[in-house]
From TrEMBL:
Name of the protein in its database record: DUF7308 domain-containing protein
Top-level taxon in the UniProt lineage: Archaea
Residues in DUF7308 domain copies: 267-467
Region (Disordered): 170-191
InterPro entries: DUF7289, DUF7308
Pfam families: DUF7289, DUF7308
Amino acid sequence: MRGQASVLGIVALFALMMVSATIVAAVGAAAITESRDQSADQQAIREMQSLQTQIGEAASGQPRGSFDGASTEEMRVAPERGWIRVTHHDYSGSGATEVVANESLGEVVYERGETTLAYQAGGLWRLESDGTSHMVAKPALEYRDATMSVPMLSVDEGPLQSSSAVAFEKTSERQVFPNETGPTAGDEVGAPYDATDGSYANPLYNGTLTVTVQSRFDDAWAEYFRSSTGGTVTRTPAKNLVSVTMETPSRPVGDFEMPLEGGEIRMDGLSNEHPLDEYTVQLQPDGDYANLHWGMYVHNGSEKFEIHFQSTSPGKCKHGNYEGDLYMTVFYQNATTHEEWHTKAIDPDTHEDLSIDCSSRTLTLNALADEDLYYENIENIPGTSSAGNKWIFGDEITDTYITGPTTSFEAHDVDRGQYDRGDKERAAFVVNHYFGLLNGSANLTVTDGPGSSSRVDEAASRGRISYPIETGPQFLHYLHVTARDVVVDVRG
């Protein structure tokens, strides 16, 4: 019995050893296979990055090139995959939309097992087994300092004379934006702007500009747009669409015809410091200037800002001189701040910035005047009774009485600290300070009163506002779009 047990033990031990060896061999084989797959993937990534670089060089410089590598047998060209479109919305300020460019992209694809890599639009992308994707190397599209460059690289398949596994050649190149040439007959894509016949020119003004990409790597494109621009990124996964929309600033105001009462002047790209260089209006009377209450204001949520001019009676020119005084007032309020300023009485016959030419009856009002404003209740000056129908924010002015110092004059580097009641500061400094609080943009609206009456003929009046455009990460001011076609021949 002992001998039989001994034999059985040896057999069991031998069987165990065989099973263990089988398991070790299987695990080892799996590990070797995984290692080989990882090695092949790394090799493919390196070769696809090299191919990306060489196609980019061919597209922008030397027009022909070739490539050989261990991974080329798993490469192919898919010209039908993906497209890019550039659209300028509301470019004329009247709602019109212009399709600046609409081009196919195509791919050079590497596929091996569950590994998918693709060259598209100058970038290198990886598609995971779960359908998600990520960027291996960034595309040619780039945004920096309010400038977007969109080199549209369209890949097509075609035979090329070469002994290499992969050959490529740039077959065409054209400048899309800026561009002064006209479109092909019957083609509404490309210069000039359809509604205005304006050429494609920088800098860009008005509306928004959207770059839309259709790609199976749309989630990776979305992440790239989010990380490289300050624009609004939207994605439609069901259609593999991703878009980035950038704001284009309104055209600098400059010289303007005065809007009618209630009309607006749009101001974009205002610096968050003291932005304005000029702000002057030349008004013509609607009858005369007696009891004038005229101004311009901004109302954005809790933020209220009004520059207001008023005259005392009789408010008429007599024997070449103006009879009456002018006052300038400035009001600003937000959720935490309430501040009021006014000048002393100003004789328009002796002041250059706030003056009247009795020969033409032109009233010139410089909001950036070299005049003293006093931090004091506006109700202290003459003619403020029933302020509710004279100032657009008359109720706010009469409801709050100033007793303490200002609270907003530490927002800018040039600010000099807070002001106590009765302190004075130049009008140019105060007005510029409040424009610097408007978060970069404003609708400046005309008000003429008092009440429903009118003292200014806005249709005959004009003005000038100038300031350097300040652009943040959400703004696009300059656009450069090129279209390049590249033929790729993969022989494996």
